[in-house]
Amino acid sequence: MTPAQDAAAAIAAAIDDMYAAFLAGDRARFDTHLHPDVTTWETHLPGPLRTRAELDAYRDARDAAGPRPALAVLAARDKRVDVWGEVGVARYVLVAEPHGAPAQRSRVTDVLRLTRGRWLIAHHHAELLREEDAA
């Protein structure tokens, strides 16, 4: 494998681990995949969260509101990862399937930076797909 292919494989594995951590309820492990200056833009969020502190404040308020639906599946599918030096871009479809409910799909782009030997997400953008677009 080339260095770029090795890096792409490491990024893909990190994304898989991040979602496995989410399913396990391990926020600390999930957060090890985020750059300290991460920006997070998602369809369901109250506007773009431009810092890690804003993301943490949102999650703390959300979690204080009570339990969320448990997911049977949270997986990145159809990944495409490109790497240019110390910058990588991952594009994939995120499948979120609650127990006993239909799956939702989001189109995701993550921009990652190689930071102290680890690929960290510096920008996460997710757009919920309409049912007709998800097929």
UniProtKB/TrEMBL annotation:
Instruction: Report domain SnoaL-like positions.
Output: 11-126
Pfam families per the record? SnoaL_3
So which residues are the signal peptide here?
A: none
Question: Taxonomically, which superkingdom?
Answer: Bacteria
Gene3D superfamilies linked: 3.10.450.50
* Record's protein name: Nuclear transport factor 2 family protein
Q: Which organism is it from?
A: Actinomadura luzonensis
